[in-house]
Each structure stands twice: as C-alpha cells, then as structure tokens.
Amino acid sequence: ILFLNQLQKDLEEVKELLTKATRKRLRDVLMTEKHKLELEINNQPPPKPKDVAEEEKSSLGGYTVKINNYGWDQSDKFIKIYISLNGVQKLPAENVMVNFTERSFDLLVKNLNGKNYTMTFNNLLKPISVEGSSKKIKTDTVLVMCRKKREEKWECLTQVEKESKEKEKAAYDTSDPSEGLMNLLKKIYAEGDDEMKRTINKAWVESREKQCKGETPMDI
User: What is the spatial distance between Cα 220 and Cα 207, in angstroms, rounded to a whole number?
Assistant: First the structure.
C-alpha cells in the first residue's frame, strides 16, 4: 500500500510538471514517465480487505517449523516422500497444501497443535508431472506423491545430492590407487571418534616404520 501511494504521488507531480512544461523534448520525457507510472499503478495487486488479511494472519497463528526429517521411496511411476506429523489426520484437508512445479514442491501444514510446518524441495533430480502429483493424509503422516515424467529409477531426490555424491566419488576415483586410499583415510579420520583416530595413527606409524626398515608397508 505504501509503495502504491508513492507511485500515485509521483504521477501527480509528473502531471503538474506537464502543465508547466513548454519544451517538446521535456514534454515527451514527462509523457513517457507518465505512461510508465500509470502502467505500474494498474499492475499493482489490489489491497486485501482488512478482514481477509486478518483472517489469513490468524490462520497462520503460532510459529512456523521447517521440516527436515522425512523418508522416501519410489515405484516405477512415483517418488513418495513420507513426512511424520503427529495428529495431522485430524486437520481439515485444506490445512495441508502442496504446491508442485516440474522440478520442485512446497508443503505447508497450518495450525497443527498451534504450529505451522513447511518443507521445500527444489531442484528435484528429474522432472515431475504437476497434474499427476498429489498428497495423501494418513495417520500421523503426510505422503507426497510426485508423478515421474519418465518411468525410470532415481538414485537420489535432488540434483544437489547427485552432485555431492559425484564429488565424493571423484575424490576416491583416481588413477593412483594410493591417492584414493589416502583420501579415504583422511575422510574416515576426519569423521571418526578418538578411538578411530588412534587406530589410524598407530597403523600409519607402524607402516612408516616398516618402510624405513625396507619392509613392505602393511595394508591399512
């Protein structure tokens, strides 16, 4: 509303300047600006009535929780995402909304035990059919059914996951087997607990000692 008011004030000022302008070049510039402002004002969405805005605000009462936990499965025709939400089957159907595009979907669950829940999946691995996709409400679970455009197996859900797996694989897939082994050991060491780190350190020291003595290094 504030932005619309500013546009209207700008338009009034341009009209006032037009009444005073005598130079053709200046009038042409002002006329162009006038048309631009009128077009922008006409394209502004109408303000919502106060009661509608208040109703929407109250329908999203409480705070919003982003859903990170889910399970997924697939058939020849569908990618199935399972989201656990206690008591979701008690909500009115319109409180559970899923918006699909060819490579994404958004889930919004309103007013479940005083909270709203959202989940967004962008950059799905392969395109889906918007018309063929749907949701199902089960006991304590929302099932999102993404209809595959092509009946083929997906190795993961998103393009980001695929790229991450490929980078990880490339780190170990080298022409030098010992380099691949070192990369693997570094990963295990970085992610391991203290006991794992001690074991790797001990094996490494023993391997270096054998090398120094001219013996064949042990396989780690």
Answer: 8
